[in-house]
Amino acid sequence: MKKLAVCLAALLPFAAAAHAKETLTVYTYESFTADWGPGPKIKTAFEKTCDCEVNWVALGDGVAMLNRLKLEGIDTKADVVLGLDTNITDEARALDIFGKHGIDVTRAKVPGGWTDQEFLPYDYGHFAVVYNSETLKNPPKSLDELVNGDPSQKIILEDPRTSTPGLGFMLWMKTVYGDKAADAWKKLKPRILTTAPGWSEAYALFTKGEAPMVFSYVTSPAYHIVEEKTDKYKAANFSEGHYLQIEVAGLIEGSKEHALAQKFLDFILTPDFQNEIPTTNWMMPAGATTVALPEAFNTLVKPAKTLLYTPAEVNKNRKTWIDEWMKAVNE
Amino acid sequence: MNNPITKAIAPGIILGAILLGLVPLISFAIERGGFLNAGIDPAIVHVLWFTLKQAFLSTSISVVLGIFVSRALSRRQFLGRELLLSLLAVPLAMPAIVVVLAITAIYGAQGLLGGGFNLYGLNGILLAHVFFNFPLATRLIVEALNTIPQENFRLAEQLNFSGRAIFHNLEWPVLRNTLPRICGLIFLLCAASFVIVLTLGGPSATTLEVAIYQSLRQDFDVARALNLSLVQILLCLALIFAAGKMALHNSALSSFKTTTIRRDGQSAAAKAFDLLALTIALLLIGPPLIALIVSGITYLNFNLQACVTSIAIALPAALLSVSLAWALARHDNFATHVAALATLIVPPAVLATGWFLALRRFDESLLVVIISIIALNTLMALPFSVSVLAPAFAQITQMHGRLCAQLNISGWNKLRRIDLPMMRRPLAQALLMSFVLSLGDLTAVTLLGTQGLVTMPSLIHQQMGHYRGNDAGGTALLLAAFCFALTLIAQRLGKSND
Questions:
Q1: Do residues A45 and B199 touch, judged by C-beta distance below 8 A?
Q2: Separation in Å, CA A283 to CA A84, A124, A144, A275, A278
Q3: Cα of A145 to nearest chain B Cα, Å
Q4: Model pLDDT for residues B285-329, shown as the tens digit of each residue
């Protein structure tokens, strides 16, 4: 109670200004709110539907957001959290601060369907090995061909400890090789040019021509077709299937703006939100759109099979699997 | 100004900042069960070994090269000397990934040299670290050599000293005194290097800093992060202690004027040697900087908000950092050494997390976020500004210490009449270095920034994260050009004041 009084006293000077409009505080990641990201347009669109203001709090990425929530716990300033993915939702759920979204889950269109009552997907993307078709004439047709292929044709990976795609690739190896994943990593090692700390670094090295392959998303070639008018970058279609990343949002149960937060989550699956996703976040929309996808998206690889661990499986095994990866590549 | 209380102010502020980070984290770890029992696994030994090896090699190459290049720059006047000195300030402001890409443009698979160079592994790490640190070493050593009294060179000239004798009698005593500090700084910078080691390290490189970052970020294992930090802190303290033991206080002749013009090193051999050193320097930093220009020039994009934000953070950080450095450099001892290196000893990620816990009651306001970013930048620039100011202070004390004591000049009078006039040049240098460093900072803004706070380096990072590598190249060029121009202007101003 004392704490509350102190907080209230501290907030008094702002109260007059804040009272005019309700403010919805949304934690998200940096690239979502960048000028060319979906953030600015989505803010405007949502503010039209309510007498309110959207306040983005941009953190580094999904993992940085989760850590912020772990530090803040129940006192978090967030009303909505947007940008976690299914690899970390189990940990987020364990914090016991998220409430039920109350949205009809059948509105969410993601591979494999959606049942989670606490987190709602807003976009998804299959991971893929992206290659330069001018320098690599015979791209691998499966993960196994990648692992056992010509070591002079290198790939740039991301570190599973510091990057979401990096973790995605490690999980992909695990779904395909299971107990033999460590051996597969040892076979793959000569093909790895380097393991970058994040996707940005890896992709920058790739576009500079340092290696013919990089670990990225199925949707990456669409960017180059739409924005740079080149189709030399392609995603390789792997016969074992592709690992999936689903990005989700959730609402904070104890939020003072609970009703507004729920309204925002409902908005997430409407066309006003979903139309922005493909060409600003370069991911696939998880709900109905009213604007047709750009032509480039029709040329993209359509994975025959989707691979995905449940959030609980990832949470339970991640540490062991990362240790296994580290041991395998360090030998 | 010499009583123990004023002496303790600067280290006290820094210690306070560190404790403000560590205490909340420790209590957070204890609340969630166990701190010291988290243990350290044997994999860390392998990590430590690689960290120390690459840092040792990077430091040795950077400093040896720095000695020769700074000597050539100190004893020769030539067309473009100032330009070269200003160019040497640019790497300080460059985000690591920008430098990595510039290096691949030369030595990479599609690079200018045809791709024959294997960049991934120890080679690439060393190349990038030397690119960053040999210019730093050079600039710091040039500053140190500048403190040699002008009369000494005149005397040496009259006595017909050989180049070797000049090095031995005039330069070496100064170097002997400052090199341990410079080596220590560069070693710690390389040991804490993160993006370069991972990006260029090949399939499996890793360092202690990555392990700490991983335990804080991925596993959110605060106890493990604290334990690893403890390993780092102990290692650093041992290193600083050893470096301090190596530094000797020289007893050069006193003078009222520090070096402005040198006329030694006129033999053909000395000229050839200096030419070689300068050529190597130019070949090392020139091509990647040209690559930076080529890749950025057609994508220049000026983002006013990012520029203003960067300056609004860097300027107060530089001023604060130099003020603290001033106080630390005046009292050169083990405690002040350690205080100056605070953020290289305690990882910024650990500090930032602790600060967040301590200050989160106020984090509603943008002001608190900005203040903490400025504070972290202040601490991170501290080792650089102390490295510039300490040798100059040592020189003043030697020259005027006894006289001041006899005439009972102290406090404000000493500051105004002795310290400030004598320190103008090193002060400007320290200010410039801290400013440029904070301008290029990505660590503090990433760890603490929210609310759409965009600086130039974080803009580069954002652009790269959105397939906009070309625009990132343009922004990086702008940042580099700004720092270059600023250094050039500062140098001109410094000169007109001499």
A1: no
A2: 14, 6, 26, 11, 5
A3: 19
A4: 999 999 999 988 888 888 888 899 999 999 999 999 999 998 888
